[in-house]
């Protein structure tokens, strides 16, 4: 049996590793010239690590970047709006990990035979019968897995009339700052903008920023330093220490609900199926879940029944996570003084357990 994987990112390589471990022949098409990841930091949450455990890779990642759960949310003045009970979260859900995205890609790539990897191969079209047209010719598989991101060629090929991704109204910057002390993983909210920082194992600090902006607008590090100059420490220091070429900016998209993730011999996963806002940090984790679930279902039940089972299990769950992620970040992007004042007064009154309760369905996943 052969699985063709379109896309060599986290979801695609996880699917390739999962099918390879089950004895399938795999072929992974990646349009970039090499299998790597140009992103910044990545927090892998307990459910994502549990997915990697099914491949025997979870402990490798735990050893590389053990981390605490998020500490909470601050106001831009520095006062706490929500402060999580970190010990309780670890006790209930398990380990968190923070690594560079490239570290996870490297780990997954090593679990796939080198001869199965096809870098520099752009996919032009995918058919439901398992045929893939690409820059190197045409390939056919018993299964095609579309793991080719928010602007997926696989999705557009199979469902050409389905609405495309929707810009959610804010853009996102990411960077890694040089080593310096920070107080755990903290997100800070302003009015229509926010700043998050997460310590990495080597002392560097993964930073992300989001701000309301017209689609396609671009700002560099100088503008970010000015925007956040009067926010609480260590935010200005983190930005002042960063290099201009370290900043990545991407507009933030969400994919409308799809009626199915499968058609014929084709399945889509990760951002290709359910691109979500980054508010819960669940994008990569859901792709990991998708990939191992798909491989288990198809290998156990056969392609037809396995794809039906995959769609039946994964679509409701991932669309629930998409919705919760959208809701979790909405209040951070309010710009009304009355609404932000009400938000800042109400959030500290919530019990410390509210964060854990809200994400219990995500963190407690098992295959």
From TrEMBL:
Record domain FAD-binding: where: 2-325
Low complexity bias locations: 129-141
Region (Disordered): 121-143
Gene Ontology MF: a single term: FAD binding
Keywords: Monooxygenase, Oxidoreductase
Name this polypeptide is given: FAD-dependent oxidoreductase
Gene source species: Streptosporangium roseum (strain ATCC 12428 / DSM 43021 / JCM 3005 / KCTC 9067 / NCIMB 10171 / NRRL 2505 / NI 9100)
